[in-house]
Write a structure and sequence with these properties.
- Helices cover 57% and strands 10% of the residues.
- The protein is α/β, with parallel strands linked by helices and 296 residues long.
- A five-stranded mixed β-sheet has the order 3-2-1-4-5.
- A hairpin with a 4-residue loop joins β1 and β2.
- α1 (3-26) runs antiparallel to α2, α4 packs across α5 and α8 (182-202) packs antiparallel against α9 (209-223).
- The longest helix is centred in the middle third of the chain and has 29 residues, at 96-124.
- It is elongated.
């Protein structure tokens, strides 16, 4: 595939992940949306490190007896549907007996599917998940690496920005930043990065600082709104860990400004590509333990 087609596929996949995360957030299922965002990060990392679009490797799919029987008759479940469709549309000739047999196979397959769905609904509906069970191991390790830490995921959508955040103990929430679009964020991030790069190359004068701080304040208002900032300070949060999305990955979070101070002056800051990929003391202990067990 051409690079353009590969990129369009990646963008489509990422859009699906973000849409699912958005739906979960709208239902108040914040920890589950965190899991989806971690999966998105994993997909992006696999694409970056391998250079081709790859999927999570899975084992062979186990078929039910009914599915196996239908595949033996028709080569695949899809072929059964195509045969019925072609027969009904008179695209292919089929006897009355063949048509009735195909209908019967379809009914059997549909009945089994409906039975499976019903059993799953009965098993799942009365069960309220433990919030701690919904936090992935990587997220838990990042939050527990230092006390008073919050993990913040800015979710950049086409027409708005949602800030998803989590703390220890399975506590998570989200806030929507109004009147901020993906285009707004991209423009501000690009401009901020351009100004910072210009300072790195040719230096900045006192006259340049107001321009830089103006963009830095705008990004601060979006990525750490006053309501969220006040809440974190009230709860004694000292460490912010950002898992940044899209163009936001390219801005230096420490340089964000609230009009009085830079963000680095008020919090200890970290940025991570994905929580599961972030080394912590706990993950290092687990790695060493595995190495020791493998040697023995």
């Amino acid at each position: 595939l051409s690079l353009e087609l590969q990129q369009s596929y990646i963008d489509a996949v990422a859009s699906d992940y973000r849409l699912l995360a958005e739906l979960l957030i709208s239902e108040g299922r914040f920890l589950e949306s965190l899991q989806v965002l971690e999966l998105l990060k994993a997909e992006e990392i696999r694409e970056y490190t391998r250079g081709t679009v790859t999927n999570i490797q899975t084992g062979d799919i186990k078929l039910s007896p009914v599915e196996t029987d239908i595949i033996n008759k028709h080569d695949s479940i899809v072929q059964l549907g195509l045969k019925i469709d072609d027969c009904e549309a008179a695209v292919r000739s089929c006897s009355e007996e063949e048509r009735l047999n195909w209908y019967r196979d379809r009914t059997t397959l549909t009945t089994e599917w409906n039975t499976l769905i019903t059993s799953l609904e009965r098993a799942v509906s009365p069960v309220a998940p433990n919030p701690r069970d919904l936090i992935t191991e990587g997220v838990s390790e990042v939050l527990e690496a230092q006390p008073n830490t919050v993990l913040i995921y800015p979710v950049v959508l086409k027409d708005r920005l949602v800030l998803l955040w989590a703390t220890r103990g399975g506590v998570a929430n989200a806030i929507e930043v109004p009147q901020v679009t993906e285009s707004d964020i991209n423009r501000a991030a690009f401009e901020f990065r351009r100004l910072m790069r210009q300072c790195e190359i040719s230096g900045c004068t006192a006259e340049d600082i107001p321009t830089i701080q103006s963009v830095a304040q705008q990004l601060h208002q979006w990525l750490l709104p006053k309501d969220l900032d006040d809440l974190l300070r009230q709860e004694g949060i000292e460490n912010l860990v950002f898992a940044l999305d899209q163009q936001l990955r390219y801005i230096p979070m420490a340089a964000l400004h609230n009009g009085n101070q830079y963000l680095i002056e008020r919090y200890t800051l970290s940025t991570v590509t994905a929580a599961w990929l972030t080394p912590t003391a706990r993950s290092e202990e687990r790695r060493v333990g595995k190495e020791c067990r493998s040697r023995w």
